[in-house]
């Protein structure tokens, strides 16, 4: 199966075979999980970008799952370097060869691919024919790219065998240690039904230990030798074993292009920084320390206890320790010679020679191998030229349980010097008798020599390194240190308690006697803090306060090598001085001087801790966010809390006090992105030094018309202990701890107008004169309770009525409780009957608006009356009846008979015209 991500989406080019093809399997073996590997074997392959990984895993033949060469059930998985599962296949017991896992994958990124084979049941392994290889972009096989740290295999990858010998495998593996050593491992005539091949620097390890046992042992599940195998583990892949290195076993010599993380270069062993340190001044007992720079190995410390310059005398001591990893090491010496007598501390010339040998121990373990007829060969290509093929083993645990085994090995041990393995050594047959008995009895009694056993063969490098350290004369030394649990970078507030600790360490090679310390509180502390004398404490000796200066004097007494003593005390900050605490303690024989650090040096003998007394102060300012507000609108205020000091302020509380008479449901920002009712305090505000927090208060202005003021005040009701009282800007007149602001709300404008006009400019005698009155509310607030009064002149007018907006007429000319909405008007019509007559008349009419609500501007009166500007006036003209006298008078002629007759006619005509006008007026 092909998967994206690190892999390309297509098949790789066809394979191009080289004359000497790279190995892709261990010949004639099936791969399984294995009990030693806890049921999972992992094979790794390093593939560069553009190269191809080919994996083929399948059962050898189908069946029930219990037959030779059949799978007992399990699974296989191919994983990319990024953890992506590229292919995964479950194998049922007895699955046919057509069921397979793997595929061909082209890497788009360089990395390590893993192929895992797992048993469903380690007693019935999955047993898969396997091939895992890497090819370049042209399809050429690349050797030295495939490895495992522990191969669980079954010999025999054929469907049938003419002889048992055909099951056997002969192959070579190539090992690389974690520090670059190289070993070539050869096996000839190897046959294992469910066996494991692994290489580590430990081999078989006794439970609870991390050192190699240097023994071959029964497998943990075996009951051989009273079940002693349960006391040992095969180290590969195990946790809890200090310094364990699991070696990579390559199918071919490691490719030279492998990265250092996979195949590091070998570097010769080194010992660095070798030293010895006494544990006390009373004896030479102590510890040898150093660093293995490049290679692990076995450390041998030779102690020249008599100081004769030789390390092989009868009094000289030899100590051994296995160092499984590079890095720091330590070896303890009890200060006694080889005969158990304490070496006198006054003896000169004692020295320590430390050597590292047996570098890169290589333990190759054959686990549950039924036969190994050609034995094993181990050839080292790094780590010195001597004994490059020497192998060691110790099978002595089997001495009392070999009697009923079907085969044996030539020698139970290799001897102290080991044996040359170049031709194959430490071998055994499946059955020495030739009777063809089954070598895989698995009963811990019978079977071949290797059945249910973990056979360990080991080798190591012949190179090494040597370093020498001398035991120096006793040299007492005291180091003084001063510290405080209060961070020096944090400014302090008045009232804060600052604990100090003075520590004396006897770090020389001899005991220190009569240690005395002076703590100079008067030189930088007491101007800004007070000593809490009750807090003074010492772990040994006694301390006192000089009443004249305030200095502390501590007589600690003697301290053995490695011992420490302490004095502790507290001061309480007042902040009355230079705003700095500089606390220096010195050894009594050192001149006073403030030090650069909290640890004294040989040059000064003083240690100093510094603190800064900070300024804790907040500023509060409340302002209005708008110059004015409107009834029914919104009003807002801003509160600014600024940290004007040098110390962060935490858990500050701001309390806003809005006046609720005219501000409805005011809210305030809570400093955390939300809002809350303004009547609730805003708590938990954190304000860094130099920073500020702004809180906005807003609410709806109550409906109304009168001028009001919206006052708002705020205060800081909680701040950190030790802070100065807040600075208040815009302080309230009645309480300077509050900041005040207010917003005026102007009144809603009230403005009325009154206008009276005549419906017609003239009306005849006996007609109806009419007037129009318009009352308008030109403001923004309603007018209620108005009274409109019409005042007609009744000398020539009767039957006067008034109507509103075309409604019914009324003779009551005073309209009370008149209401006008804002920006509205109403119209009244006043009419009356003009009296009969012949003379010209003027009929005046006036109207007045009273009971105007308080707060309204003076009413705008249009057409004001001449004698009363508060009333609006209009008039109607009634012309006279008859125009003759007027004409005669205008001619100046005497009224004779003709004239009189003409006058009669004119009067008659005038009367006729008047009748016509009156009729016309009525009909119109």
Automatic annotation (TrEMBL):
Keywords: Membrane, Transmembrane, Transmembrane helix. Residues 62-75 have a biased composition (Gly residues). Residues 57-81, 409-445 are annotated as: Disordered. Residues 478-587 form the DUF7927 domain. Pfam families: DUF11, DUF7927. InterPro entries: Chlamydia_OmcB, DUF11_rpt, DUF7927, OmcB-like_DUF11. Residues 619-730 form the DUF11 domain. The chain crosses the membrane at residues 894-915. The keyword Transcription regulation does not apply. Residues 409-424 have a biased composition (Low complexity). PANTHER family: CELL SURFACE PROTEIN (PTHR34819:SF3), LARGE CYSTEINE-RICH PERIPLASMIC PROTEIN OMCB (PTHR34819). This is DUF11 domain-containing protein. It comes from Rathayibacter rathayi (Corynebacterium rathayi).
């Amino acid at each position: 199966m092909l998967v994206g991500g690190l892999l390309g989406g297509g098949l790789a080019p066809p394979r191009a075979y080289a004359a000497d093809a790279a190995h892709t399997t261990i010949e004639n073996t099936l791969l399984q999980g294995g009990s030693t590997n806890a049921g999972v074997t992992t094979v790794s392959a390093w593939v560069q970008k553009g190269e191809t990984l080919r994996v083929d895993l399948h059962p050898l033949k189908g069946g029930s799952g219990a037959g030779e060469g059949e799978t007992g059930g399990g699974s296989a998985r191919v994983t990319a370097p990024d953890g992506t599962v590229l292919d995964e296949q479950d194998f049922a017991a007895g699955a046919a060869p057509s069921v397979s896992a793997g595929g061909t994958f082209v890497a788009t990124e360089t990395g390590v691919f893993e192929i895992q084979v797992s048993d469903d049941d380690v007693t019935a392994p999955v047993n898969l024919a396997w091939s895992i290889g890497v090819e370049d972009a042209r399809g050429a096989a690349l050797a030295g790219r495939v490895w495992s740290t522990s191969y669980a295999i079954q010999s025999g990858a054929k469907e049938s065998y003419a002889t048992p010998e055909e099951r056997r495998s002969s192959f070579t593996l190539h090992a690389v240690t974690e520090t670059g050593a190289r070993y070539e491992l050869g096996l000839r005539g190897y046959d294992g039904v469910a066996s494991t091949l692994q290489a580590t620097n430990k081999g078989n390890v006794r439970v609870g230990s991390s050192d190699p046992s240097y023994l071959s042992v029964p497998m943990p599940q075996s009951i051989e030798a009273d079940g002693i195998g349960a006391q040992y583990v095969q180290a590969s892949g195990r946790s809890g074993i200090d310094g364990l290195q699991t070696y990579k076993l390559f199918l071919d010599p490691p490719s030279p292009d492998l990265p250092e993380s996979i195949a590091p270069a070998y570097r010769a062993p080194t010992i660095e920084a070798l030293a010895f340190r006494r544990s006390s001044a009373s004896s030479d007992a102590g510890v040898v320390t150093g660093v293995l720079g490049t290679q692990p190995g076995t450390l041998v410390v030779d102690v020249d206890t008599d100081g004769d310059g030789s390390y092989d005398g009868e009094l000289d001591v030899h100590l051994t320790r296995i160092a499984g990893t590079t890095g720091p090491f330590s070896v303890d010496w009890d200060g006694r010679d080889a005969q158990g007598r304490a070496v006198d501390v006054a003896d000169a010339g004692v020295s320590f020679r430390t050597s590292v040998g047996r570098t890169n121990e290589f333990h190759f373990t054959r686990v549950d191998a039924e036969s190994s007829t050609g034995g094993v060969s181990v050839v080292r290509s790094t780590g010195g030229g001597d004994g490059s093929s020497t192998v060691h083993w110790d099978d002595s645990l089997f001495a009392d349980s070999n009697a009923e085994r079907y085969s044996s090995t030539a020698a139970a041990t290799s001897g102290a010097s080991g044996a040359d393995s170049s031709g194959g050594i430490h071998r055994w047959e499946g059955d020495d008798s030739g009777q063809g008995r089954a070598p895989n009895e698995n009963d811990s009694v019978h079977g071949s020599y290797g059945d249910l056993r973990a056979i360990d063969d080991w080798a190591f490098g012949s190179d090494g390194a040597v370093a020498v350290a001398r035991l120096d004369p006793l040299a007492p030394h005291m180091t003084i240190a001063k510290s405080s649990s209060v961070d020096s970078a944090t400014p302090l507030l008045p009232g804060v308690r600052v604990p100090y600790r003075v520590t004396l360490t006897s770090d020389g090679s001899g005991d220190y006697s009569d240690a005395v310390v002076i703590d100079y509180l008067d030189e930088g502390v007491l101007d800004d803090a007070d000593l809490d004398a009750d807090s003074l404490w010492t772990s040994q000796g006694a301390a006192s306060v000089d009443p004249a200066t305030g200095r502390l004097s501590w007589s600690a007494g003697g301290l053995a090598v490695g011992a420490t003593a302490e004095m502790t005390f507290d001061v309480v900050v007042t902040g009355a001085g230079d705003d700095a605490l500089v606390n220096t303690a010195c050894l009594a024989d050192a001149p006073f001087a403030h030090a650069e650090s909290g640890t004294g040096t040989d040059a000064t003998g003083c240690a100093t801790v510094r603190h800064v007394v900070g300024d804790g102060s907040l500023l509060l300012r409340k302002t209005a966010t708008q110059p004015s507000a409107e009834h029914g609108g919104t009003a807002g205020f801003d509160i600014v809390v600024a940290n004007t000091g040098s110390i962060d302020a935490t858990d500050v509380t701001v309390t806003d006090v809005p006046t609720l008479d005219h501000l409805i449901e005011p809210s305030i920002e809570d400093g955390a992105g939300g809002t809350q009712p303004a009547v609730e305090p805003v708590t938990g505000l954190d304000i860094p030094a130099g920073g500020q927090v702004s809180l906005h208060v807003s609410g709806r202005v109550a409906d109304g018309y009168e001028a009001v003021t919206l006052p708002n005040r705020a205060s800081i009701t909680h701040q950190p202990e030790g802070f100065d009282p807040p600075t208040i800007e815009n302080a309230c007149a009645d309480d300077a701890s509050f900041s005040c602001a207010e917003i005026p709300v102007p009144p809603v404008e009230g403005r009325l107008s009154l206008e009276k006009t005549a419906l017609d400019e003239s009306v005849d005698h006996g007609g109806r004169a009419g007037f129009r009155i318009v009352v308008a509310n030109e403001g923004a607030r309603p007018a209620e309770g108005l009274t409109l009064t019409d005042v007609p002149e009744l000398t020539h007018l009767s039957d006067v009525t008034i109507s509103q907006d075309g409604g019914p007429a009324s003779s009551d000319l005073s309209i009370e409780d008149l209401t006008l909405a804002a920006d509205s008007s109403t119209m009244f019509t006043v009419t009356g009957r003009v009296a009969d007559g012949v003379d010209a008349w003027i009929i005046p009419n006036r109207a007045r608006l009273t009971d105007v609500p308080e707060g309204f501007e003076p009413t705008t009166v249009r057409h004001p009356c001449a004698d009363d500007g508060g009333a609006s006036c209009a008039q109607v003209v009634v012309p006279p009846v008859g125009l003759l006298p007027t004409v005669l008078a205008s001619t100046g002629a005497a009224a004779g008979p003709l004239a009189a007759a003409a006058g009669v006619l004119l009067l008659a005509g005038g009367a006729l015209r008047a009748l016509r006008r009156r009729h016309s007026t009525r009909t119109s």
